[in-house]
Amino acid sequence: MTEAINHFVQWYQNTLDAGGYPLIASLMAIESTVFPIPSEAVIPFAAQRAHATGSLSLSGIVLAGTIGSWVGATIMYWAARLAGRPLVLRYGPYFMVKEAKVHAAEQWAAHFGSFGVFVARLLPVVRHLIGIPMGIVKMDFKWYSLFTLVGSCLWCAVLAWVGVVAGNNIHGEMHRVVLWVAGAVAALGALYYFFVHRHFAGAAPSKEL
User: Fold this and answer.
1) Is residue 209 part of a domain?
2) Is residue 207 part of a domain?
3) pLDDT, tens digit, 9 for 90 and up, residues 117-148
4) Number of domains, the chain
5) What range does the domain containing 158 cover?
6) Which end of the chain has less neighbouring CB within 10 Å, N or C?
7) How far is the C-alpha of 97 from the C-alpha of 157, rounded, in Å?
8) Cα–Cα distance measured from residue 56 to residue 91, given in angstroms and rounded to the nearest whole number
9) Contact 97, 88 (CB under 8 A)
């Protein structure tokens, strides 16, 4: 997996200038489905390149990332809504969506409601899964879209800021970057533990279809 990510990062660095905003949006759309493309490798590098060269704008990067995230999340929502729960559970494992994760995501979504869509966009594990339970329960698509857009925009803005900070300090005080990244990791780790880990660890898979 590490080698695959390294190849992806190298390809992305060589392709970004030509691909521009459509490339960013496409990669973020893929990241919001079931394919493990890390947004942490997409947005920060683009922001760093934009800040250094001016070839792209930071607002454009955040907008492209937000739209791409919404497109991917929308695909997950409608795929689950149209397929229905039995088909999702039956064929999900072929798309790296295991039954246990679906059950846990359903219970997580039921517990946190529509606010969970917003929180999910900021956290691993559930960020690409949240569309499945929301599609199955047929959450109002307008509200799903709104919370997805707001959460995705915030996440992309944070990642863009990290990219700019890292770029400013790449040849300077790297310890400041380390401190900021460590603080961000600690904050996300706390959110992940309280909102995801405890719930997923205690979720008992249901066998009912």
Assistant:
1) no
2) no
3) 888 888 766 777 788 888 888 889 999 999 99
4) 1
5) 2-165+174-202
6) N
7) 28
8) 40
9) yes
